[in-house]
Structure formats: structure tokens, C-alpha cells
Amino acid sequence: MHLTLVCPGCGSGGSIEFFLNDADGRRAVAIAAELGTDLGPVALRYLKLFAPAKNRLTWPRARKLMEELQALAQVDFINRRGRAWPVTRAMWVEAMEQMLGKREDLNLPLKSNGYLLEILAGMADKTEAQAERAHEAGVQQQSSSRYADDGEAVAAAERHRATMARSSLIAEKASRQRLGMPAFTPAEELAFLANYRV
């Protein structure tokens, strides 16, 4: 019996031996697994945007693209437009899904991850602007209030930070739910809130 497989991400096809014996193919699939169940599958589908119109994406090219994505997604920021932008895993997933959803409007095949990084920078910019507006509202509220002592001012600042952290957590949970990603565990929620910085 001859079993033919086709990669759902890059479109490469062949016998099962072809997939098992090709080092680049094995590495590309291994990276997808390392990226996790939230990011790995969408990253494989994202590879389709790099496939030539009349040909399939080669395994060496697929491996190289997956390695680039893995390196980018391992840190919690991207460098774009002359600065570092904070990004989350949910933002990576959402940005790739956006591109896959409007593939008809893209100039395919893609040559680099540049457009993906632009989308991520735009998302980070929006998130930052929302946080800044909320922060400014909190500062105005603090300046219009009279505090009995410095202890009250510190307590108000901490309440403001906690409110901002909860708002960011709610936004992150909504993004995860919209994208069908696993929900935060209670421990992950506590870590998110503890590490939040205005």
C-alpha cells in the first residue's frame, strides 16, 4: 500500500517515507510542536502564504521560516519602526489569523515576515495607547484628589496599577477566548497580575 501525505502548512506532498526521511521536514514539524498547541498549528498554516503560486514550498524553506518564527516568538517583544514593541502569544496567533483571513488582499507569495511584524507592531501600539489613556485618566484623578498623607497617595497609585492589571488581564483573556486558545489557569492569572507594569 502506498500512503501519500500532504503537509497542511506548506503543501509539500509525498510518501510517508519522504516526510520521515527529510531532515528539514522533520525539523519544521518539530518546531511547530515546540511552539505549542496555540501557536504551532497557525504557524504551519501561515507558511502557505510563502508558497509559490504554481509550486509547493520546499522543506528547507519551510524549516527556515519556522526557525525564524520560533526565534521571534521566544521573546516578549519585537523590534519594528525603530523601537521595541511588547507582544503576547495571543497577539502572534491573532496577527497570523488576520493575514490568513485576508490572503486575497496580500501580494503572495510573501518574501519575509515583515508584514506580520507590522501587524504585531500595530496591535501593540493600540494596546499601549489604551493603557496610556487609562493611565492618564488615573493620574488626572489622583491630581484632582487631596490626600491626607503620602501613604494614601501610594495606596491610590497601587489601586490604579491593580485596576490597569485587571483590565489588561480581561483583554488578554478575551483575546484567548476569541482565538480558541486555552484559558489561563489560576496560577497564570496571578503571575500575569503580579508581573504587570504600567
Structural notes for this entry:
- Helices cover 65% and strands 7% of the residues.
- The protein has a two-stranded antiparallel sheet. It has a two-stranded antiparallel ribbon with strand order 3-4.
- The relative contact order is 0.10.
- The chain is mostly helical and 198 residues long.
- The chain starts with a strand and ends with a helix.
Strand order of the largest sheet: 1-2
Gap from first CA to last CA:
61 Å
Q: Count every helix, treating DSSP H or I runs of 4 or more residues as helices.
A: 7
Radius of gyration: 22 Å
Order of helices and strands: EEHHHEEHHHH
| Average pLDDT for all residues | 81
- Main sheet record: 2 strands, antiparallel
Shape: elongated
Give the beta-strand count: 4
The secondary structure category is mainly alpha
Explain briefly what this protein structure is.
The chain has 198 residues and is mainly alpha-helical. Helices cover 65% and strands 7% of the residues.
Task: Offer a few descriptive terms.
7% strand, 7 helices, elongated, 198 residues, two-stranded antiparallel ribbon, mainly alpha
Give the helix/strand layout:
Elements (H helix, E strand, L loop, with lengths): L3 E3 L6 E3 H6 L1 H24 L12 H15 L3 E4 L2 E4 L2 H13 L12 H31 L5 H29 L7 H10 L3
Antiparallel strand pairs: 1-2, 3-4
